[in-house]
Amino acid sequence: ADGCPTAVTDLTYKESFNSCSQHDDVCVATQTETESEIETVKSLRGTDDCKPVSTQDGFDLNSYIDGRWYIQEQAVTQYLPAEQNFCVYAEYELLEKSFWGWDVQVHNYAQEADGTPHDSGDTICAHKADDKDPAKLEVAPCFLPTFTAGPYWVLEYDEATGSALVSGGQPSIDTGDGCKNGDGVNGSGLWIFTRQQERDEDVVNMMRQKAKDQGFDLSVLNLVDQTNCAKVE
């Protein structure tokens, strides 16, 4: 019935789900039979109250990846839980095209309060997801093909102030105080980056305001402790 070949007999099944961590604006329901089905479609695609975010105009990837970024505030995700909000940083390096088509090597580091490290090493990669918008990247483990990757969008980037705002794609969950992404893997996360490890309140507040202007619920952002980070090299 699904148009797939069968080895012996067709497979009869029923599929159900409670939530979806990744959305795509081009996925549109063509037929619904009940109001509950319509509401399910709306919950997957997000609501009209979440306005489309904009990425950094004239984004220069080479400039962006030329130096380490320290995370000052971040939303909880499956791979960055709240207990790892210490000494977090990210750095990037251009790659020659790999077998799977990755463009950038990603290195993430975080610690727990007691100094326990969480280092991604060379296991994570990124690729340019949109030829017309270089600020839209996608990230996944390097051993996976690029179609499995999740969005990494640079919404704001200012090298003069050494700051950036990064989102895990288009937020679609309306909280009443703005919108947010999920907290799983793909389609999750919100980050405020700075070039300097020491927190500059003026710079951070500037990025917070830009996030608010883009429609984000700022309550999802947790402080990252960048002090006492002697183990960070």
Automatic annotation (TrEMBL):
Entry protein name: Lipocalin/cytosolic fatty-acid binding domain-containing protein
InterPro entries tied to this protein: Calycin
Source species, domain of life: Eukaryota
